[in-house]
Amino acid sequence: MIQPTPRPLARSLDPLPGESLAGLLLRLSYRMGVTPHRLAMLCGLTCRSDSIPQEQLRGLSPEAAEQLARVAHLTVPEVQALTLQELTRTYPPLAKLRTGKAGLGSKSHIDWATNPDSRYCPHCLGGNGSPVQQAFGGAWQLCWHLPVTFACTQHLCLLESTCPQCAQPISGRVVRRYSLVRTPHVSGLHPGQCRNLAPGPPPKPRARATPCGARLDAPGDAAALPPLDMQRILDLQHSLNLRLALGQLRGPADEQTPQTYFADLITTARLITLSWPMGASFLPSTTLTDLVDEYATPYLHNPAQRGIQIQRSAPRGTAQTSALLLAAATVLGDRGLVPLRERIEPLTREVYRRSTSIGHKLFKDSDASANLLRATAPRIYGFQKRSTLRVVPKSYRFGTDQIPPLLPLEWFDAYFKPLMHHLPPMTTVFERHLRWAGSFRLAELVCGGTWRACAETLGIPRSSASRTMNVLGKQLTAPGLWPVFEDVIDEVARHLHAQDSRVNYARRRLSTADWCLSPADWKTLCEGIPGLEQRQATGDPQVGEAVIWCMVNQSSYLHSPTVSHRRSSSRSPHRLTEQVGLFANRKQRRPSYATLRHRLLTYATQLARACDDGTDLGFEASSWATAAAVH
């Protein structure tokens, strides 16, 4: 049977700024003298026998929006503005609500998506004094359904969440479902009156429901926060309103992570709840601390609640919500990685101490920013347990083939100063591990793999990556220096990204895999250097071979084919590595060794050029060794 097309209403009202669909239904039904349920049916909205499904507040289909616009003499944009649909752009938790599901009420409070029970400001409901608002009241604001809206910055007060007379939430709940308005079959109530059922025994079947009827638009004597606390709360609400309205209020951490602020704020609020009272120091007064304590304490004493309601739901009371979000915003600050980790790490550690599984669930499938995930990721010697959150691969112009296996000394000297201030005096071994770690981290930024996997792509054994994580873990984990290290490597990555010409180190490793330094070239390189006559006559050319290889490939001589072959042949490599280390050491002060090192570097430069050009690597040293000797 074809349903008749709804006819336009004889009278209508213009939506007020920020008004919700439920608010317009209440005002218009009051003006027309019909029940909200009857009006919703006339407008073509979906209705059940006992309710007007609240999931329509989430958004209307194009057909339903067009029909409501035609019947109520509105435009389609005006109708769409009555729903939460447009707010999904600036408040991402709304986008996670399942479309087409009737879950906006019963489960929409999970993950802080919405408040199925509306909050309200009595002053706003009283109207602005215009004739229309004197007759029908002010707007039931759409943003009052968002958990992050807890205060009215126009009237400088906290929002109310219950009726002053019946003390029930301003809710459209019908059994387990939610309706846009409560008692939708009752007419004649002013939009500013409470529609909750009056206290007492439930009405008999088919009996007329008796609403509470108390006026919500009459300012009461609700206890306010102390003036200084109230100002802090209002400042926070003003900041959140700007993010909701424009989505453009950003700090330094927002530049590369847009639209993650609310996800970070909510995740941090949960973290504070789960670690309470660890985060009490982030609140400026005992009044605010007591409010969070009222909300978080049941979690501490009722393990059955863990990870369910308290972890994933916003507080019902606006005062508790405001205090919790103020603490979360203080922890986040500007979301700079290093100071953020310093503030948040004790909270994260406490949550994992109490329950590892809850700690994992808190961040699983999180929409939080990369900085927050990095700041909260548990680390074992540099390895983050949450592998999927280890790093967010970025669009760099370099790949793993162009990453030097051992971070160049000039980069190390230029960028690692912020880290050096926090570390004991540098040793050669520790410096080498830091440079290895820098290369592993660069590869991790590109491909997102573990350091052991990244080591293989750089031609380094997995076991070396494990040793590096162990060595660095002893120095960087306890003082919380991993974020500093990661900031340093981010700077190196930007430097490498900006280069117009980059070396293909993978090609060089392939080209020099079977390259050898001839005894004749070794003698030529040592010729004429006082103190190296014996090395020229009977010295091992593999010493120079390993040094040149590591210079060409910007790698450690410990991973050179020469040393690797010496190990596999069951001959002790220790003497070879000791001799190579003498010439590979940039701080070598012995004049003869420094001269030979310079000649080896000159040879390596020419060999590297041949690798890059794809020309023959079998040139002789005699043509330029004499010229190099003057240095």
Helix content: 40-55%
Oligomeric description of these chains: single chain
- Widest β-sheet, arrangement of strands: 1-2
CA-based shape: elongated
Describe the structure in your own words.
This protein is mostly helical. It is built from 28 helices and six strands. It has four domains: 158 residues, no CATH class; 150 residues, no CATH class; 103 residues; 121 residues, no CATH class. Helix content is 48%, strand content 2%. A two-stranded antiparallel sheet has the order 1-2. It has a two-stranded antiparallel ribbon with strand order 3-4. The protein starts with 20 loop residues before the first helix and ends with a helix. About 3% of the residues have low confidence.
Secondary-structure blueprint of this entry?
Layout (H helix, E strand, L loop, with lengths): L20 H12 L3 H7 L19 H10 L4 H5 L41 H5 L4 H6 L14 E2 L4 E2 L14 E2 L2 E2 L48 H19 L15 H15 L10 H16 L7 H4 L5 H15 L4 H18 L1 H8 L6 H7 L2 E2 L2 E2 L24 H7 L1 H4 L7 H20 L3 H7 L4 H15 L5 H17 L6 H7 L7 H8 L6 H6 L2 H13 L7 H8 L5 H11 L6 H23 L8 H8 L2
Antiparallel strand pairs: 1-2, 3-4, 5-6
Features:
two-stranded antiparallel ribbon; 2% strand; 28 helices; mainly alpha; single chain; 4 domains; 631 residues
